[in-house]
Predict the structure.
Amino acid sequence: MKIGRVGTLVRNEVIHGPKDFMVALAVVFPILAALFINLAFGNIFTEKAKLGIYDQGGSAVVAVLEESEALSVSSFDSELALRSAATDGSVDMGIVLPEDFDTAVESGVIRLKAFVWGESLAKNRAVIPVALADAVRTVKGSELPVDIEQVALGDEAGLSWSNRLLPLIVLIGVFYGGLMLPSSGLINEKQNRTLEALYVTPTTLGEIFLSKGIIATTLATFMGVLTLVLSGTFGGQVLLVILVLFLGAIMGTEIGLLAGAWVNDMNSLFSVLKAGGILLFGPAIVYMFPQIPTWVGYLFPTYYVVRPVVDLSVAGASFGDVAPFIAVLAVLVLAGGWLVASVVRRMSTRALRLA
Amino acid sequence: MNGRVIGALLKKDLSLFMSSRFYLFITILSLVFYVAIYLIMPANTEEKLSLGMHAPLVPPAFEMLAAEGTEVSYFDSDEALREAVLAGDFNVGLTLPTDIMDTWADGGKPEITVYYAATAPPEIAEAVITLVRELSYIQTGDILAFDTTEEVMGPDLLGEQIALRDRMRPMLVILILLTEIMTLASLIAVEIAQGTARALLVTPMRTGDLFTAKGILGVGLALAQAVLFMAIVGGLAHQPLIIITTLLLASFFVVGTGFLVASLARDVNSVTGWGMVILILFAIPGFGAVVPGLLADWARVIPSYYLIDTVNRVANYGAGWSEVGGNLAITAAVTAVILAAGLVALRRRFQ
């Protein structure tokens, strides 16, 4: 293998690659996905009870409620809008605070109108009235008749919903480009018969695969970092995060090269992606829904990419904490590399026979 | 339009499909995975806060916890309670002091300990703490007088919540259908690229015959997969005719979109690229079915909204023809437009 030839191939890919729609898509799509996911879900997926308030008189209670960690509070400017929100599930409960609410708090009976979403959970229907009562007592200045000591058990902090979606963002960023670029590129080469033309040159198939792999890995790593930056979670041990993303990019590239080697047209590639996509994005689903046992994640190869990224970026884990996962990831990458090399040798042997 | 020609084309395409064990395997495998995703999701919804309590003496007010959207389990010791919370058996644990009533009687402040797992969402612990505060006020005689007029919006599903995996069915089945956009578009794009379509045009076959055959194949493949998935996951348990009708319309929608993509894309790579963009766009309303209230009204401008909303309302809420007729009408109209546009655009490309 000649490094110079690989460099030439890489340079050609860099020059002509941007003209390829797939390259543009590999850049644009992860960015759009990251922005969309953060904007759409970052503050919406939550265990908090959703309270809507139509405050007719500027009550002091509203500010207290908005500070509650147990609630997600939205304000509405009309009763009609509040009813609509309670009907479609935007809020678990909507309450109308009359103009004289604060006066009533001081004097006696507090009159309210409440709209309850029919699908709201029992716990949310319980928490909201209690939180409202608590806020009223705060405004009244009532003295709490109990001392409450809070004790956190265990070392790991809970993940917010925006962080639960982080694996999905990482997987899109790293694997979309890493997988699609080499696979579609190789298929394109096959269909245009340019691979066969290259067989008569000193360039080897291994060099072609390597050049495509370098391009895909570089872009995938960059996109992984970029999506983390856009998500506001690129921090902690930066170099270690980049290392994991790099290894993940190699994994994605290896899968892409294998797919490009084995399938002969885009339709087949698409079918592979349709079936295998669940295997790639399975860990994202495991993180999104904690009801799913953690061990399920171990079954997916990509888990060993997202787990250390999340632990390092969000939980502030040390190298020792994520070393086992990185080790497994490295083994998977080596195995993938061996598999790609085997396929290349087999393809080269077949090409020689055809020649 | 020549039925015999269409039949021959269909036979050819089906033969190619069936002879490709790879395609068959992948198609079956993808369905298995989607079903697996459904099955792995929780079959029930946790309606109540799960709370562990160690309380040698339970104040009367705290006995109201069970009626306050909370499931309470009692422990004999503080240590056992801590272990249960740490193991994730309970969201939060409470330890009340043995002399809690005496302390209150003396005008003092008893100390209540709230345990929660560090991995638990902070809002859960806060919710329980809020409950404890309120119950403490009530126990000491400080009761607020609320006169609340309450109205439940929509059907009251308290105790009968729709499970997460059932909420996902509309999104999953639409994803199965939408992925066929790329399949069909790729098939057509490959035929164009390889010149086989033009070769066929010098035969007695007309373009209409070719499009009809491709359309039937596309509808068949999409509909078969979608119906099979819904049947397996229980989506046909209520109003199966509406579900199948909706999926049929969705299949035509998919075919029309596939035609459009094939006509506009320059090559197979472009088909995949643009197909992915369209798939993501059309999948957005599915999230609204999983999380009610998530999407604003703007989602209605996405054509697939009406498909997903129909499947969701029928499969999860038992809606009938009268409730979803409007959705079906809109879907049929949009599908007709897309299909017509796709046919026109594709015909122009062939000429």
Q: What stands out?
A: Residues 280 and 302 of chain A are 6 Å apart (CA to CA).
